[in-house]
């Protein structure tokens, strides 16, 4: 794509629902997904019979050996469509790392092309019993033969590599990273559905946490949870007749990672160079610049992602994010600061992937954030995964 997205501001979010976020749910994930999707449809002022599109990303994000069973530990679009009480003519799923931008992009294109009028998009996350990322291998084949026997297995070691690079290259410290965790947990503690509701974190508690893969400690990782969030999308014209103020999808972009690396080899230069190109495409597709955004919601499944996203999106210079955050640059209680984690993110809510970022953009731009409603919320950006492997969506409170 070159230039502004043809469907920019032509498709809108018109309703949502969010399940409880629990460490482990006593009910199958499919039941939670079905209830949440139906609640989102009702919130949009619609009935299941009016829904003719279902879109998701059903990836089960674990490096362990847990079984993937549709309707139990994962919920595909076809599984939900068969049980929703609708007769959808468009059912699709995104396959890739940037799950939230990917599924939003599919839904936007479906509505803009006339393939569906009302589309439910959802993300359903399951937390299995036992160790989430336990390595069950007795033999390593393929690319993992070069990494797993040496202990380089799973996402913790993967993110420790560029995090160490950043610390060494720019003189950053774990004490500076404490500001990220304090901000995320402060905001998450204020949100009723958050796993960390009522549980803020101090810098001292963060620095005292057990080390998992140096310099990644326990609190640098979002906690695995079970939960579902769903949204309804339709055309801007249809949205005008529905109960809630619509929030328009202005543009989106997904990254194309460097292919010369092993899957877990994420050097800092790859993250930043591919991420910068990802951000360039994002702003071009939405027809805006970083200066236009007053509600950035950066992804934080691992805390270093906050620094990386702030820099590739252009909110602070490369190598300066650690100082920017430590100096209060993202303090959501400061009206002059950039509220990059005002929705709590993954660190403040639990491992709901990019849902906290997407939901905060919807709630704030639609004026539905309640006591947390910000005075200024017109253009938001919601990020997901690493800048070089994920993507982002720009949302707008007004059509432009």
TrEMBL record:
GO terms, molecular function: acyltransferase activity, transferring groups other than amino-acyl groups
Signal peptide (residue range): none
Chain ranges of the Thiolase C-terminal domain: 277-382
Top-level taxon: Bacteria
Protein name: Thiolase family protein
Provenance organism: Frankia nepalensis
């Amino acid at each position: 794509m070159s230039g502004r997205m043809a469907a920019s501001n032509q498709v809108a979010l018109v309703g949502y629902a969010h399940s409880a976020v629990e460490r482990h749910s006593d009910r199958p994930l499919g039941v939670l997904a079905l209830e949440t999707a139906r609640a989102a449809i009702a919130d949009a002022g619609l009935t299941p019979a009016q829904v003719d599109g279902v879109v998701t990303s059903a990836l089960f994000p674990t490096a362990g050996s847990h079984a993937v069973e549709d309707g139990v530990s994962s919920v595909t679009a076809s599984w939900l469509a068969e049980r929703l009480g609708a007769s959808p003519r468009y059912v699709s799923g995104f396959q890739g790392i940037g799950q939230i931008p990917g599924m939003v992009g599919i839904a936007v294109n479906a509505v803009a092309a006339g393939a569906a009028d009302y589309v439910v998009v959802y993300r359903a996350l399951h937390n299995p019993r036992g160790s989430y990322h336990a390595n069950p291998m007795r033999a390593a084949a393929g690319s993992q033969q070069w990494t797993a026997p040496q202990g380089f297995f799973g996402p913790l070691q993967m993110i420790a590599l560029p995090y160490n690079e950043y610390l060494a290259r720019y003189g950053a410290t774990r004490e500076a990273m404490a500001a990220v965790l304090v901000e995320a947990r402060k905001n998450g503690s204020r949100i009723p559905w958050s796993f960390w509701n009522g549980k803020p974190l101090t810098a001292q508690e963060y620095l005292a946490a057990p080390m998992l893969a140096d310099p990644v400690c326990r609190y640098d990782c979002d906690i695995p949870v079970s939960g579902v969030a769903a949204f309804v999308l339709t055309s801007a014209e249809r949205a005008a007749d529905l109960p809630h103020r619509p929030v328009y999808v202005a543009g989106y972009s997904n990254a194309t990672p460097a292919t010369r690396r092993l899957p877990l080899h994420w050097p800092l230069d790859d993250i930043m160079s591919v991420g910068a190109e990802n951000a360039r495409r994002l702003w071009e597709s939405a027809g805006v610049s970083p200066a236009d955004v007053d509600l950035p919601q950066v992804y934080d499944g691992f805390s270093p992602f906050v620094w990386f996203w702030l820099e590739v999106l252009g909110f602070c210079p490369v190598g300066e994010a650690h100082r920017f955050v430590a100096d209060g640059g993202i303090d959501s209680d400061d009206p002059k600061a950039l509220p990059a984690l005002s929705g709590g993110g993954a660190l403040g809510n639990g491992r709901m992937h990019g849902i906290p970022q997407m939901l905060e953009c919807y709630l704030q731009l639609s004026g539905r954030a309640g006591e947390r409603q910000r005075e200024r919320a017109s253009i938001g950006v919601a990020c997901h995964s690493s800048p070089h492997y994920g993507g982002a969506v720009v949302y707008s409170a007004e059509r432009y």
